[in-house]
Amino acid sequence: MDNKRNFIQYLLILILLSIKISLAFDAETTHPKLTEEAVKFYNFYAKRKINNQELEWMKKGSKNEDLSPRWANHFYDPIHNIAINKRYFRGYVPEAGWKPIFGFVLPAEPLKSVDWSINQEHQFLYYKLNRTFQKAIVSYFKKDYETAFESLGHVLHLLQDLGVPEHARGDPHIGRGGDQPSYFEEYTKNYLNKDINIAKDLLSKNIKFKKFNGIYKIFNELATFTANNWFSEDTINNDFP
Ligand SMILES: [Zn+2]
Hints:
This protein has a single domain, classed as P1 Nuclease, CATH 1.10.575. Helices cover about 50% and strands about 0% of the residues. It starts with a helix and ends in a 12-residue tail after the last helix. It has about 240 residues and is mainly α. The structure holds zinc ion. Zinc ion binds near residues 23, 166 and 182.
């Protein structure tokens, strides 16, 4: 009887812990919702509109980019040109590597998210799932639209993360062991649960979408904007401008 009760208690603690561990925007709601608004906005202006089926594929991709442990590659600090920074994990021991931070050994050293988005070899090391920007382009021309739009959703996820101070400042936000979660991500999760009309609001203000030539330029502009204008919990007193 006691054993059974203990087991259930442990199970409950485990479930609670796994809910608490938040390394990114909430994948279930936040990323698909942001993707949907981005597509709505794009469709206001685009000649070749993204249809509902294609949108669903993109939403699926934007959700699946958080498949563990791909999220180790979701950081890009453009000021120091680095990926996730171990120093900003509270209680970090320099010799210990990633294991105490994530709880397991990573398949490969994390990349900057902008590099991750186009590095097919590296994505292959992470359990053979290639959802790079190239995969999106090649699949589109092969008329494999499902893979194309899903891959595009994966890339959008990376960009969406760079609107979060922690991601643009390389600050892990595990939400356990003294390492704080991202308050902005928590806020966004609640905010996006309500009825929102970001795309329509932008349209009504006559805001048009911006064109870039090259994926690096897109990532750099957003990451620099975020890193330069907002603090994250563990990067207030350090070498950011
Ligand atoms: Zn995050």
